[in-house]
Amino acid sequence: MNTLLEAETIEKRYRLGSGRVLQAVAGVSLRVGAGEALALVGESGCGKSTLGRALLGLTPIDAGAIRFEGQDIARLSARQMRPVRARMQMVFQDSYASLNPRRNAGEALAEPLRIHKRAGVTERVRELLDWVGLPQSALARYPHEFSGGQRQRLNIARAIALDPVLLVADEPVSALDVSVQAQIINLFRELQERLGLACVFISHDLAVVRQMADRIAVMYLGVIVEEGDGLAVMAAPAHPYTRALLDAVPRPDRPLPPPLIGDVPSPISPPPGCRFHTRCPIAQARCREEVPLLRDIGAGRRVACHFPLTNVL
Ligand code: SF4
Ligand code: MG
């Protein structure tokens, strides 16, 4: 598969008022292939939103490199970044976040096309509505006149207006009813296949990404702990944290899932050794001292654990 985006040991720190430092992303390397659906999964506060924004150059990084279509985007000027920006777009959890309440859907869709001086705006706007399954009558409606699901369709239409090759969607269905969630996930899947879009789908919910991920990367406290083929990871997770996330997904045959024990430690002072050792059911002495590196265990699977649950080879 052709590599579209490649992140290399990227780090992102936030300086807090007290002089303390929160390391949101602590050395993440990640590759997104052209047309690929990658799910970035983890609990809230694990750094996945920061990573998602960093991948698109929306937040500056402290170390590492991000190459998009071969260009190091951290080194591009605002002007050089503009054509690149059109090729990578973001969809947010809050469907109101990127919509102006005083602009109707037609204006919202035409805006990026006009800014980038595209021809045939009217036809393109109509086509975009079709793509996302909104009726033409939606053109004259304002953001507050849509349901949450319809508004997210409008955001997706806006995000694909300039024919991007990469979409980063940060919890795009978390605010929606479960029945609507499935429809929006199907829409992502459909657009991804029909337009050949690569999609980084950020979610705290493994049940949500199950349907759509070619590949899964699991994050914990700023690092990736497991990465691999979507179905294979779901069927046989190698990292105890992935196992715990999967066990937390409710199933008809197991109405009360066991909760993950304990809270996520603070990213201001992450535990030494393996960051997951304070919550890991199989932690041993070595885990408290030695950082497990993300290593290849075969079949495209990478895992950061001294005692992985599965040997893929
Ligand atoms: Fe658990 Fe140790 Fe693996 Fe960390 S390295 S996940 S503590 S077994
Ligand atoms: Mg988030």
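^ magnesium ion complex. The longest strand covers residues 3-15. The chain has a mean pLDDT of 93.
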